[in-house]
């Protein structure tokens, strides 16, 4: 329905715009120009503020690349149904793995070491990571957790970091050195780690 008139099927739709006089047009153009200038000024202020904010760098933490490989498209599916397909489905006792990518990827294997009190600083990665604790314990905090809940991982435990915009920090809050081995899959040529300007306000570090 247009302006209280019913539109008949097959009939052309007519759009009727109000006529604007020369003076009104000039006023409208001035308003649009002022709006554009205001938006530009706001963007400039935001960019200036962002550039003046310090990052949250690592401290007492080192990460060493021990292997780096370049992969093409990946399309791999594996499964295990130990009780037979249908019985395993009914019981929930089955395993499925699916890895699919489009475009080249870089696979990093990182050896990470935290001294007592060490931290990675708040950061993200452009792809996902599988982290295995090999010594001591690390405590993970998620940037989107309003309670800033600590998640403690000890030797033999694994951590999945989904990557992309997942802001997080890993800290060694124990009294001995902590170590992990991490496997990361990211877009080829991408920066492996992206520091976050500031940590979430709900976390005191």
What report would you give on this structure?
This protein has 205 residues and is an alpha+beta fold. The protein folds into 2 domains: 1-53, no CATH class; 59-195, Jelly Rolls, CATH 2.60.120. It has 2 helices and 12 strands, in the order H-E-E-H-E-E-E-E-E-E-E-E-E-E. It has a 5-stranded antiparallel β-sheet with strand order 1-4-11-6-9, with no helix packed on it. A 3-stranded antiparallel β-sheet has the order 8-7-10, with no helix packed on it. It has a two-stranded antiparallel ribbon with strand order 2-3. It starts with 21 loop residues before the first helix and ends in a 10-residue tail after the last strand.
**Overall structural domain count:** 2
Cα-atom radius of gyration = 27 Å
The SSE string, one letter per element, is HEEHEEEEEEEEEE
Overall average residue pLDDT: 82
Helix content: 10-25%
Please give the alpha-carbon distance between the first and last residues. 57 Å
In CATH terms, what is the architecture of the largest domain? Sandwich
CATH topology of the largest domain: Jelly Rolls
Question: In what range is the share of β-strand residues?
Answer: 35-45%
CATH class of the largest domain: Mainly Beta
Query: What is the topology, as strand order, of the major beta sheet?
Result: 1-4-11-6-9
Shape: globular
């Amino acid at each position: 329905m247009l302006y209280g008139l019913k539109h008949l099927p097959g009939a052309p739709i007519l759009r009727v715009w109000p006529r604007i006089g020369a003076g009104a047009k000039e006023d409208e153009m001035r308003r649009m120009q002022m709006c554009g200038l205001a938006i530009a000024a706001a963007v400039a202020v935001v960019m200036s503020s962002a550039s003046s904010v310090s990052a949250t760098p690592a401290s007492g933490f080192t990460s060493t690349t021990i292997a780096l490989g370049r992969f093409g498209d990946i399309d791999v599916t594996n499964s295990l149904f130990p009780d037979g397909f249908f019985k395993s489905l009914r019981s929930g006792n089955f395993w499925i793995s699916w890895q699919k990518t489009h475009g080249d990827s870089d696979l990093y294997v990182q050896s990470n070491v935290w001294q007592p009190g060490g931290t990675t600083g708040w950061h993200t990665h452009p792809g996902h990571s599988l982290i295995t604790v090999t010594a001591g314990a690390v405590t993970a905090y998620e940037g989107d957790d309003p309670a800033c809940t600590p998640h403690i991982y000890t030797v033999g435990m694994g951590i999945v970091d989904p990557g992309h915009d997942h802001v997080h920090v890993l800290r060694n809050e124990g009294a001995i050195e902590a170590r992990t081995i991490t496997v990361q899959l990211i877009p080829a040529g991408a920066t492996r780690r992206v520091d976050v300007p500031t940590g979430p306000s709900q976390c005191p570090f």
